[in-house]
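In keeping with the milestone schedule agreed at the kick-off meeting, the structural modelling team has produced records for the first pair of proteins. Each record is given below as a sequence line and a structure-token line. The laboratory manager (R.T.) confirmed that both were archived under the project's standard naming scheme.
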Amino acid sequence: MKEEFGTNNARRWYDKDPVLSSAMKTLEETKDDTQIKIALNLIKIITEHNLEESKYEDVSEIINATEIDLASQKRNRWYDLDETLRTAISMLQNCPEDTRSAIAVEMAKMVVEEIKKDEEEEEEDELDKLIEDKDEDK
């Protein structure tokens, strides 16, 4: 029988949550600049959640906890190539499971929104190029 999400045998820590797993897979496949935008937003969201829940008293405590964790981690995962992305994902991994689940939904929405923006920008760039080419032909 095939393993279901939520078991302890998930390959990666984020595969335990199907929304988070899907968001991470999509994030992995996006452009580098999109990944960084999302990482910066994630850092902001995670910081806000941790402060609201009084897990940490201030931002410096959150940063210190993340730096300790980052120092002990391997650096061969897809999100380790960029320090901002690596920090955001590490912060997410260190969140309590219920907080991580809530953030996963926000993250999934961000990923979809950023991909849509990128696609719209690409279409606009293509249209601008066609107009420019047409004007040059005249």
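The second protein of the pair:
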Amino acid sequence: MQFKDIVGQRDVINRLTEIIDSGRVSHAQMVLGPTADGSFQLALAYLQYLCCEHRVHHTEGDLRADSCGECPSCKKIGSLMHPDLHLFFPTATTTRITSNPRCEDFAADFREFVLEKQGLGTLDDWYAFLGIDNKQGMIREADASAIVQSLSLKAYEGGWKMVVVWMAEKMNAAAANELLKTLEEPSEGSVILLVCESDERMLPTIRSRVQTIKWKPTNGERRAENNAEYAPLLVEWLRMLFKLKMKELSTQVDKMAQMGREQQKQFLNYALGVMRDCFLKTAAGLPCELGSGDQKFDAMFPSMVTTNNIEMINAAFNDALFAIERNAYGKIVLMELSFRISKALKKR
């Protein structure tokens, strides 16, 4: 992966190449931003430039420098086959690995997935690739121990020892605690990159030990996690809540419950974002353009979210997200949420 392959982010990239060229490489960093936009691409391109034997510096254009893409190191990292590059990511049990899943069990699968998606795959894409749509993947203590072990050894090729933790917010508490000392005092010649979409889900002790590289918004140039796909579902669901006909609502909840857990969370986060946007804009006297594709709904709904019910709505969605995150039965969670939101909207 080369920097030229990444959409936008030229200011961020140029700053990173300057830091690497000056020899001031931080040993523990967090790349914070959507994987569907390219945050994981940025991490891989960073390591490729770090290890490149013939870095290319430009005198023209908006890109200051890049890896050559041709040296043995570039080709190995580009194919994810560099012996000193170690990848860690969320896993879950499958029909093949029925207990105690670890990253090493899925190493070949993950390489295939990353190359197929060109580094732009989302967590949902990865779960679908493995066929575990309705399970919650995580990075476990055994994986963190493997990270510590891989960094304790000498570099096979005598250069950098590199670890990339993809979707690092999926580390459980035991894994995060196992990794703390290594992040604070990494071995000589090692680089750890945590790629995550939400640092709020990371332990504060982890965040305090890493240097953060923030992905700048790309104005939706290439966001696979396109919330527009949830708009029709949201409109349909909210209309059911106004009618509150149990048979129809039950059918609608069944439809929502059939989505994978990650998709359920994305939908709920999207819906909560719509609610908050309605409240903030209408409270400020500003027009609220939902862009749901349903003009009648867009004109009517924003006024339904007021100071009288926004706290109830916010609490209901957050409780549902908390429950789904902890593997609660989706249909029960979504039905309870439906009743709570219906009650809240009637308090406008």
